[in-house]
DUF1842 domain-containing protein
Amino acid sequence: MSDLLAGAYLASGTIGNVGTPGAPIARFQLVVVPSQHSVSGTVVITQAVQGPSSHIVVQVKGKIYSTGFGKVTQVVSLHGQYVQSFPPPAIGAFLADFDAHLAIDNEWNGVGGFSYYQHQIENVPVASAKKGELV
């Protein structure tokens, strides 16, 4: 039973073009358990535009696998759902899907993409948080 969490660690960082005005950025805080190929945690999507998509919090879970070759040493997939409000003047909300895919090195730097309600972001940088940096 003690082997269930063997090698577990925390990973945090960003997916997206940080510093580009108006670009959606996904910030992640994840618990990674490589021995179980599992990843779970929270993703916060922010965008510098007003509206229901300007700050979204998603509980995610997913898979992590080693590639065994090249600069890309790991691939990660994430999935979750969140409550998406209809834009005004409509009233109401629904469950929307969030998905992400990352091709990263052992330090969680690389390239990836993510999708959420009516947004598809591809081929953007994945960057791990620096020591002591909040994401």
Notes: The radius of gyration is 16 Å.
